[in-house]
């Protein structure tokens, strides 16, 4: 019998200066039994980094062809955002850029090292295929500090200003700058 997903609750105060958003969010994220806590935090950070109305988590690990975070237009069917996290394959991002139907494509890598490896692979091929994707990586220290928190119910504040993440969680302050890249 398959193990059930674990539901995590995040009460988030998001102040996204770069997007002019200041909202309180109650977010529920299902964590697949094979999904790491690190990847769950990456999905949450991507959701908040790319936050807009109608943003939602994709099916996650259970359907690797689908994005990790997606936003739909007002009609409810047109995608306005396709976002992947972790270690996506170059071919997957190329397909997202080519077939996205006008949707913004974003990738939040698990580390600056993984972002650099992706960029090297893209530059060795046809970098123009991923040129419209927004590529960034979470600093190692920040993701390491967050993945130590496995509670199923979390309350946090996140401020994003000039690509810098400021996290308040459990009385602790964490921060780190997103590392950007382009082919």
Summarize this structure briefly.
This protein is of the alpha/beta class and 183 residues long.
Describe the structure.
The chain has about 180 residues and is α/β, with parallel strands linked by helices. It has a single domain (about 5-180), classed as Restriction endonuclease-like alpha-beta roll domain (Restriction endonuclease-like alpha-beta roll fold), CATH 3.10.640.10. It is built from four helices and eleven strands; from the N terminus they run ββαβββαβαβαββββ. The chain has helices at about 35-50, 90-100, 110-125, 140-145; strands at about 5-15, 20-30, 55, 70, 80-85, 105-110, 135, 155-160, 165-170, 170-175, 180. The strands form two sheets. The protein has a six-stranded mixed beta sheet, with helices on both faces. Strands 2-1-8-9-10 form a five-stranded mixed beta sheet, covered by helices on one side. Helix 2 links the parallel strand 5 and strand 6. Helix 1 (about 35-50) packs across helix 4. It is globular and about 45 Å long. It starts with 5 loop residues before the first strand and ends with a strand. The mean pLDDT is about 95.
Furnish the topology, listing elements before pairings.
Layout: E1 6-16, E2 21-31, H1 37-49, E3 55-57, E4 69-72, E5 79-86, H2 90-99, E6 104-109, H3 112-124, E7 134-137, H4 140-147, E8 153-161, E9 164-169, E10 172-177, E11 179-181
Parallel strand pairs: 1-8, 5-6, 6-7
Antiparallel strand pairs: 1-2, 3-4, 4-5, 7-11, 8-9, 9-10
Helix pairs in contact: 1-4
């Amino acid at each position: 019998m398959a193990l059930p997903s674990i539901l995590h609750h995040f009460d988030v105060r998001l102040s996204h200066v770069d997007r002019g958003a200041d909202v309180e969010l109650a977010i529920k994220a299902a964590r697949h039994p094979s999904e790491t806590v690190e990847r769950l935090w990456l999905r949450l950070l991507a959701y908040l980094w790319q936050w807009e109305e109608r943003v939602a988590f994709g099916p996650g690990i259970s359907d690797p062809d689908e994005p990790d975070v997606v936003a739909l237009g007002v009609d409810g069917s047109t995608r306005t955002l396709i976002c992947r996290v972790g270690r996506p394959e170059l071919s997957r991002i190329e397909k997202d850029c080519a077939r996205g139907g006008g949707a913004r494509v974003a990738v939040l890598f698990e580390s600056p090292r993984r972002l650099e490896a992706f960029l090297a692979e893209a530059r060795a091929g046809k970098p123009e295929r991923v040129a419209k994707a927004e590529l960034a990586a979470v600093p190692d220290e920040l993701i390491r500090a967050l993945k130590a928190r496995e509670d199923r119910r979390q309350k946090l504040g996140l401020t994003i200003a000039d690509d810098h993440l400021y996290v308040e969680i459990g009385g602790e302050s964490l921060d780190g700058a997103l590392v950007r890249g382009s082919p």
